[in-house]
Amino acid sequence: MVLGEKETDLSFQIRYFEIRKDGYSSLECHAHRHAVVVIRGRGKMFLKNRLHDLRPFDAVYIGKNVIHQFHQTG
Prior knowledge:
Order of helices and strands: EEEEE
Mean pLDDT: 88
Low-confidence stretches: none
Distance between the termini: 25 Å
Helix content: under 10%
Number of helices: 0
Radius of gyration: 13 Å
Structural class: mainly beta
Number of strands: 5
């Protein structure tokens, strides 16, 4: 966690993660909303039964209880 775990007055957390080449994240669905910003690389995101292409500086909003997964493609 980059920011938000110890700072109790924040209403959000910032995390950093990388997905290796040809890798993917877990297929997830959880009760909190979040946003993801792609810093580098390319990928695809599975969101609400659809695939979306991702590239650097794309930003994605993921609502509560929405199934999602990220795939690194280059």
